[in-house]
Every structure is written in C-alpha cells, then in structure tokens.
Amino acid sequence: MFQMLLHYLPTDLQMFILVVVFALLIGLEQRRYHINEPFENLFGTDRTFTLLGILGYILYVIDKQQLFIFIIGACFITLLLSIYYFQKISTEKKFGLTTILIALITYTLAPLVYTQPLWLTFCIVILILVITEAKKSLFAISKLFDEDEFIVLAKFLVLTGVILPLLPTQPISLAIAVSPYQIWLAVVVISSISYASYLVKKFVFPNAGIIITAILGGLYSSTATTVILARKSKEDPNDNQILPGMLLATLMMYIRLFVIAYIFNSQIAFVLLPYFVVFILITAGIIAGLFWLHREEKILPMATPLHTRGNPLEFKTALIFAALFILFSLLTGYVFRVFGNGGLNILALVVGVTDIDPFILNLFQGKMLISEGVIVLSVLNAIVSNNVLKMIYALSLEAPQIRKKTAISFGILILEGILISFWLFLTKGT
Question: Is the pTM value of this prediction over 0.70?
Fold first, then answer.
C-alpha cells in the first residue's frame, strides 16, 4: 500500500518531504542539545534548520543543471553564519563550529536526496544525530588514548592498506610455495585479531578483571596470558579466578584457530570444527567445575590491576612472524618430502612449544599435496604440544597452592587431545 501511495506522489514532492523530515529531525536534535542555553545565544534550532533545508531545496530545484542559484545561496548562508560565528567569538569567547557545520549540511540535503542513494542520505543524517549527542562520550574516549595511540593505528593501516596490496602474489620459489602476499596476509590476520583484542581491552574494559582479561588475552596469545596469570597467582594464591582464567585463555585459542582456519581454508575449518567443539565443551566443563568447587567463596576485587601486553603492532613482531612463516614453510616442505606424514606429525609436536600460528597458517595456505587428514592431525598435535607448554609455564610460575589443580586441569586437556589425535590416526590412517 505504501508503494502504491508513493507511485501517485510526484518525485519532486517525495524529495521535498524527505528534505523537510530530515531537516526537522536535525533541528529538533539541535533544540534538545541546546535546551539549557539562552535562546538569544543561538541562531536557531528546529524551525531555522527546517527552513534551511527548504531553502536549499528551492534553490536546487530552480536550476538542477547549472546550480548557480544554489551556490549563490550557499555563499549567502555561509556569510550569515560567519557573521554569527565571529559575533559569538567576540561576546561569548566560544569557538565551536559544530552547529554551523550542521547547518551547512542541512542546506545541502536537497542535492543529496536527488543525486545520491537514499541509504547514504539516511546514514549522513543518522551520523549527525549520533555525533552531536555523543560529545561527552567521545570526550571520555579521547582521554583513554595514549600519546602514541594514533601511531599504533597508523602502523595497522600501513600493515593492511599499504604493504599488503603492493606485494606480489606469485610463489617465492619452488622450495617456498607461498607468495609474499600470502605471508603478509597471515601477518595482517594475526595482527588484526591482536589489535581488536587490544582495542576492546583498552576502551571497553579498561579495568577488566581476570576473566575478561583472560578472554581477550586468549584471542591474542593463550600462552602469554597463562604466564601473566600464573605470575599473578603469587600475589593472591587464594584467588579462585586464576586457574579458570588460564583455561579460558586456552578456550579462546580454539576459537581463534577456527577463525584463522575459516579465513584461509574453510574446508579444513569445518573438518576441525567437531574436534574444536569437543575441546571447548570439555574446557568449559572444567572451568564450570572449578567455579562450582569455590561456589561458597566470595570473589574479591583484584588488589593490583592485571596488565597484559600493550601495543600489539610492533613492526619487529610482524617481521619476526613473517620470518617464522618462511622458516616453517621451508621446514614443513622438507620434512614432508623426506619423512612424509609421520615426520609432519612429529614436527607439529615440536613446534607446539614455540609459536604455533606460523606453522598452522602454513598448513592452511600451503600448496603442498598434504592430505586433509594429515593437516587436521598436525593441527591437533600442535595444540596438544602447546597445552603441555602452558602447563609447564603455569606449574613453574604460579603459587604452589594451585599447582595440583593446574596439573589435573591441563592434564585433562592434554589427555583429551592425545586421545582424539590417536583416534584420528587409527580411523583415518594418517
């Protein structure tokens, strides 16, 4: 019915209604925003902004081709607003330009609705309303920025928008079957996950406790988070969130690896999914069991804040990751050619005590004729090995009071991984 009604309305009338509605909404928002200011200090709100929109519409439709009248009107409006602005500076000592800029945008609504998709005009109006009302929130967020925060953002943009598109897509050589583009794409994906975790921690949960820190830290590095939490346990051995936090970081590792697998090799990702679901469910069950054991204990706030790694976008780190990627590409190809599937599975166990991401990304992106089952088994072996490493770190760095529970918890995860890998080896013959 609404479509039929629009069919009978002339196009110019439809556009006029849209301009009036948009301008009125902007004006009403300006009135609400300046509700506590003296009326004589404003050049206008709802009626003025609506009339600005109508004036822009009239001057635009008179001459849609040359736009001379519309441009003259824009100059006249700009002159009036400039006089108001300088008068405001001299009398009130206020230098804000927000209202004036919004007024000029309101004047241009007519050419927007005529020449641009309707969704774009909606987005512009919505953004005006949101930005105006979010002044205090934006000011609060700006206080959280460090001195080098925009340098970090610039590094991320360089990694993703400058270096990546310039790299060639041809393989480096017969020995290294991946291209510079694939290598750097792996760096970008890992950096993006790390940077997203960093931003959420800094701006959404700046004073997060152990659980939130473990979740976000696990997205970056479950091993590093385990080390941080293990050291934290010596400050308060009775904190019953330490061990669940370590396990949560490991749980997030499974999620991170699935996301990486889905990005680079969705077919392998869905083969790995059932095994990851089992890992996640068992890990979540252990975490729930630990909380149930301490259900009558009161959770106390942390005596000192828990600090995780700061800037995740150091170029040195990116270059090290790229170098490891190339190294594992050479090593994986050599081991597979000389020792076959068995050698690759053993290599997976060995690299698990280092950074498993470059090795796993090599498997996902590699051009070698490695079977799907071998890739899956190698990933599972690397996870088992990495969990062993985390258990060793935890037992050596944490308070003695929780070592028994740590050994049992991680022991279950390790045994689970071994059993799944062994079952896969027997059933798939890999």
Answer: no
